[in-house]
Amino acid sequence: MESNLIKRVCKELGLTQKELAERLGVKPSAVSNWSNGDIPNLAKIVLEQMIEINKLQTKLQTIKEFKKLLNDL
Hints:
CATH class: Mainly Alpha
CATH topology: 434 Repressor (Amino-terminal Domain)
Shape: elongated
CATH architecture: Orthogonal Bundle
Helix content: over 70%
Structural class: mainly alpha
């Protein structure tokens, strides 16, 4: 697992740092600084929640696809 939270969020959500900054409403330079390890606590919480939400959305999509397969049987 990626230890750098910014890189992990970008990888898991398929975003660039610039796109991540846009989603968060911050300057790209802030995200760049965070990538170097100095992430404010609130930003860290939000980033971790973004990963969890993405995981839940992926699971939900898998369930929907499974249900569709069952209905098609």
